[in-house]
Design a protein that fits this description.
By secondary structure, this protein is mainly α. The protein has one domain. 92% of the residues lie in helices and 0% in strands. It has two helices and no strands. The protein is rod-shaped and about 165 Å long.
């Protein structure tokens, strides 16, 4: 076997090895490019998600603020209604006490008039001291 026969025999293997290496280099280059594309897409997706979450957080803050305002208004209204109810109840009790006192005074006055403890002259003197106020 001479040198040319050896080269003829080894040449297909050498071509095959070189072709495999070129294919490997091309595949690696393509893989690197695809990885860069995926990284870029992921980066954009992450930024998009972060922006969406930021918007969602701001929406939640606004919603919470509005709910708090509504609750504050409800509390203020409820407080006002309670104060009004208390005032009405106090006024009613005051009126009842006043009516009871006046009733007692008038009842005592009539008893004294009927029993003769108060004379008509004394009634005239009282009416002059306390003129009818309307």
């Amino acid at each position: 076997m001479n040198f040319l026969d050896i080269i003829k025999e080894l040449l297909p293997y050498a071509v095959s090895i070189i072709a495999s290496m070129i294919t490997y280099i091309q595949a690696k280059k393509k893989l690197t490019q695809e990885l860069e594309i995926v990284k870029t897409n992921n980066k954009h997706e992450i930024e998009k998600l972060m922006q969406q979450h930021k918007i969602n957080i701001e929406d939640l803050k606004e919603k919470h603020r509005l709910e708090m305002e509504a609750k504050d208004k409800d509390y203020a209204h409820e407080k006002e209604m309670t104060e009004l109810k208390s005032k009405v109840a106090i006024n009613e009790k005051s009126q009842e006490v006043m009516n009871g006192a006046m009733s007692g005074v008038v009842e005592g006055l009539f008893k004294d008039i009927l029993s003769g403890k108060i004379t008509p002259e004394q009634i005239n003197d009282l009416s002059k001291q306390f003129p009818n106020q309307k």
